[in-house]
Design brief:
Layout (H helix, E strand, L loop, with lengths): L5 H7 L2 H4 L11 H18 L3 E3 L5 H18 L7 E5 L5 H9 L2 E5 L9 H7 L4 E7 L11 H10 L3 E6 L18 E4 L1 H4 L14 E3 L11 E5 L2 E5 L17 H37 L15 E4 L1 H7 L3 H10 L6 E2 L8 E4 L7 H20 L1 H5 L12 H6 L10
Parallel strand pairs: 2-3, 2-4, 4-5, 5-6
Antiparallel strand pairs: 1-7, 6-7, 8-9, 10-12, 11-12
Helix pairs in contact: 1-9, 3-9, 4-5, 9-12
Length: 408
C-alpha cells in the first residue's frame, strides 16, 4: 500500500470541508466546488482526457460506470449489437464481473510469451459485435504492453472503444498519458495512485476520465465554472447515463488525493513513478536467482515471481512462503494472482520504501528460499511467531465466525 501522508488527513478534516452538506446551494459550497473543478482539470492534464466524473465510489464502480457509458455510446449510434468486451487473461477479476453486470459478454484472449496482448488473437476476436477492449497497462504482470498503439488501432478499426483499467497508473505518472496511447475511457484508483487509504474495504474512489466522444454520456451533475463562480449542472446533458452515486463521490477521499497531487506537483508525480519502477526492478534482480521468474524483462512498478521451483522440489507453495514472511515481520505480497502464473507472488514495493527496507525484504525472501531446501517443514508449518498460527482456511471460509467475547 502507498504511503499516506498525515497532512492529507488533516486537510480532509478542515471544518470548511466537514461542516458542509451536499445538498446545500451552490453559493454556500463554492470552495468545495472549486476543488472538484480544479482536480478535474489536473487529472485531465495528467492523463490526457477531456473530462472526468468523481462519482464512482471505487475502482470496480468506475469500471461499471465506464462500461455503462460505452454501452450508451454504441446505442446512440444505432449499434446496440456491439455486446462483446475483449479482456486479456492477465486482467483484474473485476473486469469480467463488471462486463457481466452491464449485460455484455466477455471474450478472453491469452497473453503472448512476453506477457503482452497477443495481436493475432486480438485480430481474430474483434468484429462487428465488439463493444470494447478492457486493458490494464502496465498489466498485472507488471509489464507495459510493447504494442499498445497497435492494440488500440486494431480495436478502433473494428469500431470498438479502448478502456484503460487505471489500477496500475502509479507506474506511469508524468511519463505517459493513457489518452495519448489510444484509450477512450479510464478509471483510476485514488487509493493506489494518489495515496488515499481505504483499508478495511472502504471508502474508496474510482474517478473516470473520458475523451470527447464519450463526454456527453458522463454522469450528472457536473461541476462547471461560470465566470468566477462554480455550479453543479444537471441540464444540457440529454445523453448522460445519470447518477451512479448518491451525491458527488466520496468527497473525503477526493480531498486527500487533491492534497497529495498539489503537494507533489508534476515533477513530484513523475518521481513517484520512476522510484516505484526502480524499486520493483531492484527487488526483481535480487530475487530472480532464487525464485522462478516467468517474464525476465524490465518490469514497471510491480513484478511476479513464482514458487514453482519450491513446489516441484520441496512441495512448498506460495501460501507457505507468504506465511513464513509473517515470522520475519513482513506483510506478505499478493499470492496466486495473476492466475496465469503458477504459484504466483506479486511484489509491489511502491515508491517510498528505502533501499534498506528493500534489502531487508530481499534478504528474508532469500533466506526463506534456502529454508525451503534445508528445512521445508519449518516453512510448511509457518507462521510460528504470530499470536495465531496456521489456520484451516477452508474451514474458516465455510464456518465464518466473527464474534468476540472475553477470554476468546
Amino acid at each position: 500500500m502507498k504511503y499516506n501522508p498525515k497532512i492529507n488527513e488533516d486537510i480532509a478534516r478542515l471544518p470548511g470541508f466537514t461542516d458542509i452538506y451536499p445538498d446545500q446551494e451552490d453559493k454556500d459550497v463554492q470552495g468545495m466546488l472549486e476543488l472538484l473543478y480544479n482536480f478535474e482539470q489536473y487529472l485531465c492534464a495528467l492523463f490526457g482526457f477531456d473530462a472526468f466524473t468523481f462519482q464512482p465510489a471505487a475502482g470496480a464502480h468506475g469500471e461499471l460506470t465506464a462500461l455503462l457509458m460505452i454501452k450508451a455510446y454504441h446505442q446512440s449510434k444505432g449499434q446496440g449489437s456491439r455486446v462483446k468486451v475483449i479482456i486479456p487473461d492477465s486482467s483484474h477479476g473485476t473486469n469480467p464481473a463488471s462486463v457481466s453486470m452491464v449485460g455484455f459478454g466477455t471474450i478472453v484472449i491469452k497473453s503472448n510469451e512476453r506477457g503482452n496482448v497477443d495481436l493475432d488473437q486480438l485480430r481474430k476476436a474483434v468484429g462487428k459485435d465488439t463493444a470494447a477492449l478492457m486493458l490494464t497497462n502496465p498489466n498485472t504482470l507488471g509489464l507495459f504492453d510493447e504494442h499498445i498503439l497497435e492494440v488500440a488501432d486494431i480495436v478502433h478499426k473494428a469500431g470498438g472503444l479502448v478502456y484503460y483499467d487505471g489500477a496500475n497508473a502509479n507506474a506511469t505518472l508524468g511519463i505517459c498519458r493513457p489518452a495519448d496511447l489510444g484509450f477512450d475511457v479510464a478509471h483510476f484508483n485514488l487509493h493506489k495512485t494518489f495515496a488515499t487509504p481505504h483499508g478495511g474495504g472502504g471508502p474508496g474512489a474510482g474517478p473516470v476520465g473520458v475523451n470527447k466522444k464519450l463526454e456527453p454520456f458522463l454522469p450528472v451533475p457536473r461541476v462547471m465554472k461560470a465566470g468566477t463562480n462554480y455550479k453543479l449542472q444537471t441540464t444540457n446533458y440529454p445523453n448522460s447515463i445519470g447518477r451512479v452515486h448518491g451525491w458527488h463521490g466520496n468527497i473525503n477521499v477526493i480531498i486527500k488525493a487533491y492534497a497529495y497531487l498539489r503537494a507533489l506537483g508534476g515533477a513530484g508525480l513523475r518521481e513517484v513513478a520512476e522510484d516505484a519502477v526502480l524499486n520493483a526492478n531492484y527487488i526483481k534482480s535480487r530475487l530472480k536467482d532464487y525464485y522462478y521468474l516467468p517474464y525476465d524483462q524490465t518490469c514497471q512498478h510491480e513484478f511476479v515471481i513464482s514458487a514453482k521451483w519450491q513446489k516441484e522440489k520441496y512441495g512448498i507453495k506460495a501460501l507457505d512462503i507468504a506465511k513464513r514472511l509473517l515470522d520475519y515481520g513482513f506483510h506478505p505480497p499478493t499470492i496466486y494472482f495473476p492466475l496465469i502464473v503458477e504459484e504466483a507472488l506479486m511484489i509491489e514495493p511502491t515508491e517510498t520504501e528505502a533501499k534498506e527496507t528493500l534489502d531487508a525484504f530481499c534478504d528474508v525472501m532469500i533466506k526463506i528460499a534456502k529454508e525451503c531446501e534445508t528445512d521445508p517443514k519449518l516453512v510448511k508449518t509457518a507462521p510460528h511467531t504470530t499470536v495465531v498460527g496456521r489456520l484451516d482456511e477452508a474451514k474458516a471460509a465455510r464456518e465464518l465466525n466473527l464474534r468476540w467475547a472475553p477470554g476468546n
